[in-house]
Amino acid sequence: MAKDDRPRLRASPLARPLRIVLVEPEIPQNTGNVARLAAGLACPLHLVGKLGFSIDEKAVRRAGLDYWPLVTLAQHSDLAHFRAEHPDARLYFFSAVGTRSYLDVPFEPGAALVFGKESVGLSEELLAAHPDDVYSIPTIGPIRSLNLANAVAVVLYEAYRQLGAFDSLASIALAGNATDSLGSDAIDAGTAVE
Q: What does pTM read for this prediction?
């Protein structure tokens, strides 16, 4: 909930929002940050494979994730299941070992932005199977990679910028609390949609 009722800068949602896909995320705080980002940009979050934490109602409540009900969330047993559910979604893979910049991605509405687990990223087999769709975020300092949540934020905001989501902005007052303005698209955690 906002601490005050001052207007916030808002953009119109995309007609076909991008999909955030996290493959086997391990750190709950990263996934929580990505979930907040997904709620803030009205795009669905897809969790794929084995999670390193629980997202049941009790765990979410204990973590204080008051925005969790605003997240359009789906879980998939593996990436093949995601593909079967969303055959029209173009997949873009992000890896610290990619050789092309995320700034060069030809983002498309409804595309899926796929990120790997914190410890090892996406599998070598998956990257080798999609060599033309693997991108990276360049760094200047000698670090191995960016934090997962930061990487998702960098890529997602660039994608939304390229797709024109921020071309028309308006300051809009919050009505009561942050959930009032989101309408019926928000769902309860654990419900698979989108």
A: 0.85
